[in-house]
Write a structure and sequence with these properties.
With 222 residues, this protein is α+β, with helices and mostly antiparallel strands. The protein contains 5 helices and 11 strands. Strand 7 (135-137) and strand 8 (140-146) form a beta hairpin. The protein has helices at residues 3-6, 9-21, 101-104, 147-150, 185-204, and strands at 31-39, 44-51, 69-75, 94-97, 107-110, 128-132, 135-137, 140-146, 158-165, 168-176, 178-179. It has one domain (29-203). It binds calcium ion (2 copies). Residues 75-77, 91, 93 line the site of one calcium ion (CA).
Length: 222
């Protein structure tokens, strides 16, 4: 990929504005590509978003809204349109919220409907079903979540991914999950061997290893 392809008009525009005013204009946050790939054996889904620029989840406005944010509306039955019925979100099973990253540094997954008093930072949605860590490598954000957290069981679901800047919509994408292909036998054997080695290493160094924060999920709140 050439520089021009990777940084199209928006960056050139920003550079020109910078020349004119001395300030860099931030490009509007967009989805370059995204996916939700399910591992049925692990009963987990890997969400990936490639943004058009590095997102800022930690600058807040006076209303507490993040400079950049994202939210998934999950429809576990896999149907479109995502928003249908009354109220319009009544067919959804869960909400995945990037908007709460600023609170505890993780992605929270919530029930759609709230019962009782609203929780702080809930955005009006329901209780926390679980929260998961994420990684951000340049413009690419990834996180894995158990299917249980998003309210799905068979790995087939549809969703809308909404991007916002200080609460205002900047882009949205509708898509369906895909099921990851089963690994080739050679790969599986390799993984098995590696797994056995890992177990051996873990036994030897058992008392020295702290629990890894990767793939550790907060338990579902009652
Ligand atoms: Ca489903
Ligand atoms: Ca549904």
């Amino acid at each position: 990929m050439t520089f021009a392809q990777k940084f199209p008009v928006s960056m050139l525009g920003a550079a020109l504005i910078a020349l004119g005013t001395g300030q860099i204009a931030q490009a509007v946050l967009l989805v370059e590509s995204e996916s939700a790939v399910v591992n049925l054996d692990a009963k987990e889904v890997l969400f990936t978003i490639d943004f058009n620029r590095v997102p800022d989840f930690f600058t807040l406005d006076q209303a507490g809204r993040q400079a950049d944010s994202f939210q998934y509306y999950v429809e576990a039955d896999g149907e479109f349109p995502i928003f249908r019925g009354s109220p319009f979100y009544s067919e959804l099973e869960s909400i995945i919220r990037g908007e709460e990253i600023n609170v505890a540094g993780d992605i929270r997954i919530r029930d759609v409907f709230s019962v009782g008093p609203l929780e702080p930072n809930s955005g009006g949605w329901g209780k926390i079903r679980g929260s998961v860590p994420y990684s951000l490598d340049g413009t690419v954000l990834k996180f894995s979540a158990p299917l249980q957290f998003i309210g799905d069981s068979d790995g087939l679901f549809s969703y809308q991914l909404l991007l916002t800047e200080f609460g205002g919509s900047s882009d949205s994408v509708e898509n369906k999950s895909t099921i990851a292909s089963v690994p080739e036998p050679n790969f599986a054997l390799g993984a098995l061997t590696f797994g056995a080695l890992s177990v051996g290493l873990r036994r030897k160094r058992k008392h020295k290893l702290a629990p890894s924060p990767v793939n550790q999920y907060d338990s579902v709140k009652a």
